[in-house]
Amino acid sequence: MPNYKIARLSGVHYPTVLASLVDTYPEFLTASYAQQQEWLFNSRILYSNSFSNSLQKLGNEAHELIWDLKPMQTRWADENGIAIDHDTWMIDILLAQLQEIQPDIIYLQGTELCIPGRFPSFGSNTSLATIIKDTLDSVRFIAMFSGYPSDISRLQDVDIVFSCTPAIVGHYKQLGISTILCYHGFDESVINSRPTADAAADYDFTFLGSTQAPSARYWMLSEFLMRTPIRLWVDDSDELNADGGFSLQWKNIKVVVRSSVRRGLISLFSKLDVSTLQMMSNGTHMPNSFKNIANEIVRSLDDPMIKNRETSNLIRKRLPRKTLRQIYPDRCESPVVGNKYFDVLARSRVTFNKHTDKNRAVVGNLRMFEATGVGTCLLTDTGWNMKDLYEPDTEVVTYTSAEEAIEKASYLLANESERASIASAGQKKTLSSHTIFHRCQLIDEVFQSKL
Q1: 427 and 198 in contact (C-beta within 8 Å)?
Q2: What tens digit of pLDDT does each residue of 227-247 get?
Q3: Three-state secondary-structure class, residue 205
Q4: Among residues 342, 344, 346, 317, which one has the least CA distance to residue 332?
Q5: pTM for the whole thing?
Q6: Tens digits of residue pLDDT in 306-321
Q7: What domains are there in the chain, each with its CATH number?
Q8: Cα separation values, 104 from 96, 125, 157, 444, Å
Q9: Cα–Cα dist 409/393, whole Å
């Protein structure tokens, strides 16, 4: 008998996933549900089925349900005689699948499904967790993995919450919710039958992901395109959605410009040379507001993140009308997922990582474990918890500014043996400490204590 029966509810989230599946498997849309599921898992999309495989190794019965891949879900419904309603297909099929499985535990991979009112036929403020508990007698408790600091309303009727970074643990703690730290992990089956990064490293410097315009990551990528040989595989929907909007160029801004008068003074003063600004900031007959602005600009010009720039980090900068892919068509490509994503990573000598602006000085995004897992040398921003995960500049290479990142990328590309040594050490650490199986051991311990 298994220890328990669990169903993980996860999504692929991106429309490009289906297109990639059909491109790789032309018969995907007409195949059986079992065949579609096998092809999906073989494509290594997100966690694939590494979660269920790991929990099965630990003596449990585990199931994977992909709630937002409509062709696959509706194929299951057709094969099981479930009537499909155009407006409610997602929840109808999901509940029917859970009724068939009769799980002891529901594991939600993310908070998206639990937005109150997402399924209005059950009530305008009802959460999926509540729906499941009201519908399935077999469910003993519901767990959730939060990869982003979400609104507390999404945790309604959820019994256990795993947070993927200390920052998210802190976010929920401030809201009065206790969560368990459980970092992302690497699916080590990805490297089976795949050459190591050094065996086919034909990309010098890469980045794969979203540009996150207008946040700091976008501006760093823009800088790198001007000053390094970086190649991007990017989702530029953030740039298109920003529609040329304004952004604060650097995240370490200490002063928020609140009035148009103040913005005008900053713009005017930024055109002055440093010696004049210093004289103004020390002037005995100068208005305090003028002295303060002059002093702020002088201090901002000392920041290594904006050294030698024409404007200070106090001035808002507008996004270009064109996306990075439009400006650099020869060096920016469409995003890739699954095996294609890992192939690019594995063929990269150095790959770049930058956490979101809301990460609160901690690290732990999925890209860290994926890049090191396939044996690529990772150049990443750092945080106070880095040493809990990797040894800086031994297993990964860290930076604290754009200028430092550029210098270290150049150094790594010019010093192959050191780059390869760091890449090998990073992969060794990931495979020994940061796989999905390692995370599932923690998760299983928590579940066993709850049962």
Answers
A1: no
A2: 999 999 998 888 888 766 555
A3: strand
A4: 344
A5: 0.83
A6: 333 333 343 456 788 8
A7: 5-185+437-450 (3.40.50), 188-245+322-434 (3.40.50.2000), 249-318 (no CATH)
A8: 15, 25, 15, 13
A9: 12
